[in-house]
């Protein structure tokens, strides 16, 4: 026999309601036990009947399970509260940054000469003062860079002069060595020409 679909609403008949409660309660307790055994889960179940009678099941100590639940919900609420505070701080910082960026953009436009028609005399004097300060810093930086370039060029010039002197000295030494070698060659040739021998070309002497 096919069971009909039960309408989810309160059972008006007290006897039928009590019978349904007993059946569903036992089935729920059985499912809780099976879940704890099959899945090695920590399961606790608390049921109060309409008359206030307590039915409970726990795979471990009920008090410890309740304390664990309270601690978890407390930590979770604290974590959510901290997250909300952190988000509010981020929103405030973002709002401040947007305000600063807008102010900097406005000042930048003023320094570029844009939107100064509505500026007062004091505002224009302040802008002029800022431009003078910026111009002074630019010129000082430019002079510093120019000075550094001149020093670098002087250092390179000094290095090139030293290398030129070394090359000149090397050329002089090589030339001197070449001259000495040539002189030694000529001296050897002269010595060879000055050697005397007893060789006589002609008729032999009769006395001999």
From TrEMBL:
<dbReference type="Pfam" id="PF01486">
    <property type="entry name" value="K-box"/>
</dbReference>
<feature type="domain" description="MADS-box">
    <location>
        <begin position="1"/>
        <end position="61"/>
    </location>
</feature>
<dbReference type="InterPro" id="IPR002100">
    <property type="entry name" value="TF_MADSbox"/>
</dbReference>
<keyword id="KW-0804">Transcription</keyword>
<feature type="domain" description="K-box">
    <location>
        <begin position="87"/>
        <end position="185"/>
    </location>
</feature>
<keyword id="KW-0175">Coiled coil</keyword>
<keyword id="KW-0238">DNA-binding</keyword>
<feature type="coiled-coil region">
    <location>
        <begin position="143"/>
        <end position="170"/>
    </location>
</feature>
<dbReference type="Pfam" id="PF00319">
    <property type="entry name" value="SRF-TF"/>
</dbReference>
<dbReference type="InterPro" id="IPR050142">
    <property type="entry name" value="MADS-box/MEF2_TF"/>
</dbReference>
<keyword id="KW-0539">Nucleus</keyword>
<dbReference type="InterPro" id="IPR002487">
    <property type="entry name" value="TF_Kbox"/>
</dbReference>
<dbReference type="InterPro" id="IPR036879">
    <property type="entry name" value="TF_MADSbox_sf"/>
</dbReference>
<keyword id="KW-0805">Transcription regulation</keyword>
<protein>
    <submittedName>
        <fullName>MADS-box protein AGL42-like isoform X1</fullName>
    </submittedName>
</protein>
<dbReference type="InterPro" id="IPR033896">
    <property type="entry name" value="MEF2-like_N"/>
</dbReference>
């Amino acid at each position: 026999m096919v069971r009909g679909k039960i309408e989810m609403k309160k059972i008006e008949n007290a006897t039928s309601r009590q019978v349904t409660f007993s059946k569903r309660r036992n089935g729920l307790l059985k499912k809780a036990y099976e879940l704890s055994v099959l899945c090695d889960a920590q399961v606790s179940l608390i049921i109060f009947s309409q008359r206030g009678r307590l039915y409970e099941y726990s795979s471990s100590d009920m008090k410890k399970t309740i304390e664990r639940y309270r601690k978890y919900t407390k930590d979770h609420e604290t974590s959510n509260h901290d997250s909300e505070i952190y988000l509010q701080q981020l929103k405030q910082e973002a709002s401040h940054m947007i305000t600063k960026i807008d102010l900097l953009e406005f000042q930048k436009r003023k320094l570029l000469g844009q939107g100064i028609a509505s500026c007062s005399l004091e505002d224009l004097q302040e802008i002029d003062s800022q431009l003078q300060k910026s111009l002074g810093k630019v010129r000082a930086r430019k002079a510093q860079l120019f000075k550094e370039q001149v020093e670098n060029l002087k250092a390179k010039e000094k290095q090139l002069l030293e290398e030129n002197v070394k090359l000149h000295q090397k050329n002089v030494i090589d030339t001197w060595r070449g001259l000495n070698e040539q002189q030694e060659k000529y001296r050897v040739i002269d010595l060879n020409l000055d050697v005397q021998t007893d060789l006589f070309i002609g008729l032999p002497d009769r006395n001999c």
